[in-house]
Structures are given as structure tokens and as C-alpha cells.
Amino acid sequence: MSGLTVLADGASTGTVRELRLFSPAVGREVGVTLLTPPGWEPGGYAGYPVLYLLHGSSDDHHSLVRHTEIARLAENGNMLVAIPEAGRLGFYTDWRVPDRLGTVPRWETFHLGELLPLLEREYGASEVRMAAGLSMGGYGALRYGMRHPGMFRAVASLSGLMHLTRRGMAALLGLLSVREGMRPGLIWGPRRRCPEAWAANDPLVRADALRQTPVYLAAGDGSRRPGDQFVAGMGLVERYSRAMTEDLAERLCALGTEVTTRYTTGIHFWPTWRRMIEEFWPYAQDVLRD
Q1: Half-sphere exposure of 263 (CA within 13 A, CB side)
Q2: E strands along the chain, which residues?
Q3: Residue 39: its pLDDT value, please?
Q4: DSSP classification of residue 77
């Protein structure tokens, strides 16, 4: 048993379902957006492959459907797409201290120890899985693949912020924490006091743990395409993501890992991510095809 309590389960629009769950691991109510394939029925046991799609910081499980074409893409695929809530700055980690909502959220345990069994037991999900995500979610996909070799057929990072111990990363996370009304250093402890914890959760430092898992990496160059929205600072953030993505790709290739890269123009914002998801989708379909 997963331990989750299903509080609500209903279709939102078309093949988009919204689940409200009580998670013992998070200590409160959480949400999951589930995109279902044609012919799917509640309680069915067809054994559909699953793409676990992870959202970025300062967003939630609704953001990807709201800002990208993932729901349209999923209508034409023979897979489930699960987009779970992960906290506005949860970083796909089991916390040891309360977040701003007052519980100690164990996000990894919720996603992999509670939600994954629930979907496989009651929603027709199979053990054919892939994890992918945007920004913070890209880190989450890499972290889950790193910590659970063999659980996913492949993992994908789109504009991921994955090199925790890179110079400047602690400052960036500190700024994000302040923006979210939290004290910096809550996730893995203060960077200077807890270097081992930061390194243990860094996919580049622990790239050898991804040696047997195919990895898809995408990042922009920080420049806007004509018509793209200007968002202050997001060009710089995407260039930062691009640098660490290139470093990770080089490290993984040296280890003999199967790596697919997609470098393009774009800043760290939704116009870029819409394009990235469209370009990534055929890869995900190939990975999850039985």
C-alpha cells in the first residue's frame, strides 16, 4: 500500500484528470495532474508506460498544462503523463525541517514511495517509466535517476539547474528562497556548513550513478527569439543552465553514458520550454515504447 488517501479524482478537461491526495510523506494535501491516453479508463490495468514530468520552482503541477502543449501531445501518445506537486522550492528532496507551510515535506518519498505505487495499482501505470523536468524539475529527474538506478528507462533535464556545488548556485538558491518567503539553506543545510550533503545530491558530482541510464539534456543560450517575452534575469539564468548542462554532458560521455543533447536559443522561461517539450516529445515516445 502506498499510504496515500485519494480525496478527489475527476476529469478537468478531456484527458486531463486532477487528483487531490493526502500524503503522509508531505504531511498535507497535495495535487497531481494526470494526462491519460485515448481509451484509458479509471481503474484500468492496461499497463501504460508513464512519463513522470516534474515542474520547476515557483510553479506547481498545473503550470505545465497551462503554459505548454503537453496535454495536446499526450492525447496522441500511448502513455500516462503524471505531473505531481513538488513544492515551490522543494527540489525533489526529502526535507528534514518544516517548509513555509509548516510540515516537513518528504517530496522524494511522496513521488517514488507513495505516488508511483498508487498509479501502478489503481491507474493502469506500468513499470516502464521515464522522468523528465524543467529547471528545478530537470534537477529532480536527474536526482531521481541518480539515486534509483534502473527505476527509469531514461531521464531528461530541460534547462536544468543540476550542478549544486557549482560556483554561484548557493547564491541563486538563496535568492529563490527569499523570493518564496523562506530562509536560505533549509534543503541540504547551509552550503558552507554542509558541503557533503550538497555534493551527495549533485548529479554532476555523482554522474557515475547515471552511467547505465540514458540521459536527454536540453538548454538555451540565454537569447530571446523574436516575439519571446522579456523576463529580467532569465537570459542569465539560462546561460548558467547551459554551462552546467554542457559540463554534465561532457562528464557523462566520458563515463560512457548514452547522452542526447539539444542546444537551442531561448531564455529560462515558458516560450523556450514550450519549444523544448515539443522537441523532446518524440524522444520520450521512443523511450517509452514497448
Answers
A1: 12
A2: 5-13, 16-23, 28-35, 48-54, 80-84, 125-134, 154-158, 215-219, 259-263
A3: 86
A4: S
Length of the chain as a residue count = 290
Amino acid type, 104: V
> Within a 10 A sphere around the Cβ of 278, how many other Cβ atoms?
14
Do 155 and 149 form a contact (C-beta atoms < 8 A)? no
Rg (the chain; Cα; Å): 18
Of the candidates 31, 30, 34, the residue with the CA atom closest to the CA atom of residue 15: 34
Give CA separation, 258 vs 35, 108, 215, 273, in Å.
28, 25, 6, 23
Q: What is the mean pLDDT of the chain?
A: 95
> DSSP assignment, residue 185?
T
Q: Are 105 and 95 in contact (CB under 8 A)?
A: yes
CA distances from 237 to 85, 201, 269 (A): 23, 20, 10
Q: Is the pLDDT of residue 81 over 90?
A: yes
For residues 55 and 122, what is the distance between their CA atoms, to the nearest angstrom? 23
131 forms beta bridges with: 52, 155
